[in-house]
Amino acid sequence: MTVLSRLSLRSRFLLLVLLGVVLPLGLVGILIIHTSRDTGVELVRARLTEALEETTLAMGRRWSRNQSELLDLGESPAALASLTGPISEATPGYDRLAGAWESLSEFAWLVEIEGPDGETRLRLPDDLGLTRSGRAPPPGFLNYDFPMRERLSGDVIATMRLQFRSDALLDPAVAAGGPGGSVFAVVDRRSGISLTPIPLDPALFEAERFTLGGEEWLSVGRTVTDPPVRLWMAAPLGPVTTPLEDAARRGILALLLAVLGTFVLVTLFSRRLTRPLEALSRAAAAVAGGDLSARAEEVGPPDVRETAVAFNAMGRRLSESLDRMSKKEALAAVGEFAASLAHEVRNPLTSIRMDLERCGRKVEDDPAAARALAERALHEIDRLNASLSDVLRVARDRSPPSGEIDLGVPLRAAVRAAAPRFAERECTLDFAEGSEPVSVIGDAASLEQLFLNLLLNAVEASPTGGAIRVRVVPEESGITVSVTDDGPGIPETDRE
């Protein structure tokens, strides 16, 4: 028997609610919490990506504008004149060169022009006697070589090396557009050194997710070809994912409280619904156990109440039907009892009749034999009287008396009583009686009747001149008395 089959109807109903409602809602809650974190991660990624794209575009615009100004500086007459010798304020285009530097000074920290031989011919702003407006050296430089070409032929005539401020490439308003607590970095692709001050190791940005100070971070990067840098932006996930997860947990808690309330209501409802069914089940079990007076309570929902009414009506009809059947069986038992009684009476009457007939024939010729026959007839009458007394005793629900007797006494009496019938059918009796008495507990008259019935049945079943054998065999568990004959036996159809 499975565990489910041993559960009551109420338990099965509650198990169905648990598996069909509570468990799925719990799984949905776990999924919501997990999804809320993933949503937070994607939200941070989207904001980082958007901010980084805007920063990259802004940096590209600034770089293009500064490249134009750098080109203007390299094409100035004073810059070209520096390739052939020192320059001074008297050099044509000196003012233009100084103005070009002033335009680049917010972007460039140092500009050097090297000749074809690698010698530095001009160093700005030092060679112009200009200062850097009192600014401190930048935290990060990026060296960028820019070829100077002859205007007509396009040949490279010098190299202009630019040391530009990486922070000047960035628009602070755009770079600060990331999520709260985000960090922006510009890394030289050639050296891997961060060109901006950041509070963490630039190598951490290489992993999409990393842990810093026990908190998980997410990073997004973009590669820029000109200038050769890589932009990174990273932000902690906690400030975004934690509120989402907290909101999801509060929602799940509210959902679980609602489910718990629903489960309590379902439990109360199922108890009210299944109580009449359980009473009906107990009444059915009582009827199955033989208590036909058991009745179910006619309460509960209409369907259950109608079932209880139908069950009670069925119980009453079943009780009435069994009463009628009991009366019929009683009448049948009386008929069978009467037939048995007639058989018990007929056998001794037959013996009495035969003994009296023989007695009448021998009363004059052999008075002793006639007297013996008369005594045997009287014994049969006494036995018949005892049988009728036993019948009355059984009818009054009392058992026949029993005590310790010699089994040979009723057995020999039965043999003598059956002798006339043996003689009439010319049958022989092989009765091997033991030399010592065999003591049993029983009623002598009842045993004599039993043995006589067996002997007469054996005579009736045997052919004329047949042989009947009687044996008494002591055994450990009792005494076996066997009566066998030469008849064909009981037909298969009559044995039951």
Describe this structure in a few short sentences.
Helix content is 53%, strand content 18%.
Structure write-up:
It is a single chain. The strands form four sheets. Strands 2-1-4-3 form a four-stranded antiparallel sheet, with no helix packed on it. By secondary structure, it is α+β, with helices and mostly antiparallel strands. It has helices at 9-74, 77-81, 94-104, 172-175, 238-288, 302-362, 367-395, 408-424, 444-461; strands at 108-114, 120-124, 141-149, 156-165, 183-188, 209-212, 215-224, 229-236, 403-406, 428-432, 439-442, 467-475, 478-484. The two termini are 38 Å apart. The protein is rod-shaped, with a radius of gyration of 63 Å. The longest helix is centred in the first third of the chain and has 66 residues, at 9-74. A hairpin with a 2-residue loop joins strand 12 (467-475) and strand 13 (478-484).
